[in-house]
Design goal:
about 180 residues, about 45% helix, mainly alpha, 2 strands, two-stranded antiparallel sheet
């Protein structure tokens, strides 16, 4: 049993229950049940309303699908094309005075949507550290001793390429190197 079959069977059951309740109400009315008759009528109308709601919520019955015309068929050419929606009108500019711009408050959604401007930090006034190359020094040894990490020799070379030259393995003794921070 598929989903739609299940829904159909529920719809049928609801309709049958509504009919049974209505029949019971009519029987009680014919017998003259008295004050309970209004309660039964209320129950019947509630059941009927529930059945109508279920019928409205159920998917439509599937019948044979209408033939869809192909773009080359005469039927397709006979059907007018649906109208295209008109372009959306452009919003008018706000009617505020020319010099008054909206400033979002700290608690408004507009304020929260705008990222905060970066705060410029003052540059330290300390001079760059320097190192004077001694006989037998290598960039890796200088980086290990002065920067604490031998792997930073590439950074040291990049900052001092003009002093060292094209070959990072030949560091001239007496050269003054700028150390990265």
């Amino acid at each position: 049993m598929g989903l739609f079959d299940f829904l159909k069977s529920d719809k049928k059951k609801a309709h049958e229950n509504a009919e049974k309740a209505q029949a019971q109400v009519q029987q009680q009315a014919e017998k003259g049940a008295g004050p309970s008759r209004s309660a039964a009528a209320d129950a019947a109308s509630a059941t009927r309303a529930a059945a109508e709601r279920m019928a409205a919520a159920a998917p439509p019955r599937r019948g044979p699908a209408p033939a869809t015309p192909t773009p080359g068929s005469a039927a397709h050419k006979a059907v007018p094309a649906p109208p295209r929606p008109a372009a959306m009108p452009k919003a008018a500019p706000p009617s505020a005075s020319p010099g008054a711009a909206y400033t979002p408050t700290p608690h408004s959604a507009a304020h929260k949507a705008v990222p905060a401007a970066p705060v410029a930090r003052p540059q330290p006034t300390a001079k760059n550290r320097t190192y004077t190359v001694r006989q037998g020094d290598t960039l890796a040894a200088i980086a290990a001793r002065e920067l604490g990490n031998e792997a930073r020799w590439r950074e040291l070379y990049a900052m001092n390429r003009g002093v060292i030259g094209a070959n990072p393995d030949l560091v001239p003794p007496g050269a003054v190197l700028t150390l990265p921070t």
